[in-house]
Specification:
The complex is a heterodimer.
Chain A: E1 4-7, E2 10-13, E3 19-25, E4 30-38, E5 44-51, E6 57-58, E7 67-73, E8 76-81, E9 90-98, E10 105-107, E11 111-115
Parallel strand pairs in A: 2-11
Antiparallel strand pairs in A: 1-3, 3-8, 4-5, 4-9, 5-6, 7-8, 9-10, 9-11
Chain B: E1 4-5, E2 10-14, E3 19-21, E4 24-25, E5 32-39, E6 46-52, E7 60-61, E8 64-69, E9 74-79, E10 88-96, E11 104-106, E12 110-115
The chains are: A mainly beta, B mainly beta.
Chain lengths: 116, 116
């Protein structure tokens, strides 16, 4: 159990376009989802915390107008990178926390974004 | 100061041997949780083991055990009987405060290579 999926797994886009990444909890309800960013050979950096039905909480230094997060249901959160630029190229990983087991976050497989 | 410190950028171990990955943490909270995740080259983050600050016994999950030394603020991961499939990046992470309202902070990771 506790499976989290992400779509797409990799995406290449042109500079200036917007990209939407979906994060789904497949077999459980996730009251909270998290979005992380990971540069090559570096650790995960939390971008924002997304609670179902409310606005996301962004970490310091993360532009909320650039990284739009929507958590419309207990099983789906989306991250939209607006007007993407090459420096936005990264590995984006979401995680979800079970309503019944808040100790553990279960991670999606990640999305590799390359902006040309 | 870093909240999670992993001092070993890389570790080598031979198959079937045990290996210890170091992790020290810094927090002033009385209630916190410590996690270890494995990230293979595919990028997914795999949850391995969890230790709560009030847990008196060291956590164990199969071949994984967490050597929790609260006074020293260390939470080392011990992998017994290493397998080739254990080769991956390993991240130590900490949740501070009440479990339902806090996020994870990750260390920089340790790359483990298991040789035949």
């Amino acid at each position: 159990g506790a499976v989290v999926s992400q779509h797409p797994s990799r995406v290449i886009c042109k500079s200036g376009t917007s990209v939407k990444i979906e994060c789904r909890s497949l077999d459980f309800q996730a009251t909270t989802m998290f979005w992380y960013r990971q540069f090559p050979k570096q650790s995960l950096m939390l971008m924002a915390t997304s609670n179902e039905g409310s606005k996301a909480t962004y970490e310091q230094g993360v532009e909320k107008d650039k990284f739009l997060i929507n958590h419309a249901s207990l099983t789906l959160s989306t991250l939209t990178v607006t007007s993407a630029h090459p420096e936005d190229s990264s590995f984006y990983i979401c995680s979800a926390r079970l309503r019944s087991r808040v100790e553990t976050q279960y991670f999606g497989p990640g999305t590799r974004l390359l902006v040309l | 100061a870093q909240k999670i410190t992993q001092t070993q950028p890389g570790m080598f171990v031979q198959e079937k041997e045990a290996v210890t990955l170091d992790c020290t943490y810094d927090t002033s909270d009385q209630s916190y949780g410590l996690f270890w995740y494995k990230q293979p080259s595919s990028g997914e983050m795999i949850f391995l083991i969890y230790q709560g600050s009030y847990d008196e016994q060291n956590a164990t999950e199969g071949r994984y055990s967490l050597n929790f030394q609260k006074a020293r603020k260390s939470a080392n991961l011990v992998i017994s009987a290493s397998q080739l499939g254990d080769s991956a990046m390993y991240f130590c992470a900490m949740r501070e405060g009440r479990s339902g309202y806090s996020t994870l902070t990750f260390g920089k990771g340790t790359m483990l290579l298991v040789s035949p």
